[in-house]
Amino acid sequence: MSAQLPGPTDPAHLARSGQTLSGTLKVSELARLAESVREPGGEVSYELRFGEEEGVPTLRGHVAADVTLTCQRCLGPLAVHVEAEPQLGFVDSEAEEANLPEGLEGVVLEGGENLRPGDLIEDEVLLGLPLFPTHDTGTCPPWEDSVELSPAEEKDNPFAVLASLRGGSGDED
């Protein structure tokens, strides 16, 4: 991961000091994201601004990534741009989430649990990926006729034997 990105850290400490973390990560450095894409060669850029609002440690940021997925329509490569604007407030319990300033999503860190900025960035990109990535309608490359279809062979009718047993045309009743 980027040298600018710290390991597990207390978000309250980052908020009190008003730190901003910014940089880029390679998709290959983010294990869960690398498993979710077709080619792990892309990059993820991020800017995470920590602060305090109404006494609550907050994070407001921007995360962007360009990744290659597999089109579910043609199974070809599909370039996808993902952007996310995390607006988070860090609290100690679910009960405190109700008191968060408006517009913030609560993140519960119980018992002094630390924030992993790399995991947060990866989560934001994963949440932004489409569930069923496809090219726009009509833009998938045409299928190649790699399999030659043989002309339909005329097969014997299994009921033809019954017609002959009946003695002819079958008009007798």
TrEMBL record:
Pfam family, one: YceD
Region spans: Disordered: 145-173
GO biological process, one term: ribosome biogenesis
Classification via InterPro entries: YceD, YceD_bac
Coiled-coil residue spans: none
UniProt keyword annotations, A-Z: Ribosome biogenesis
The family this protein is said to belong to: Belongs to the DUF177 domain family.
Name of the protein: Large ribosomal RNA subunit accumulation protein YceD
Organism field: Thiohalospira halophila DSM 15071
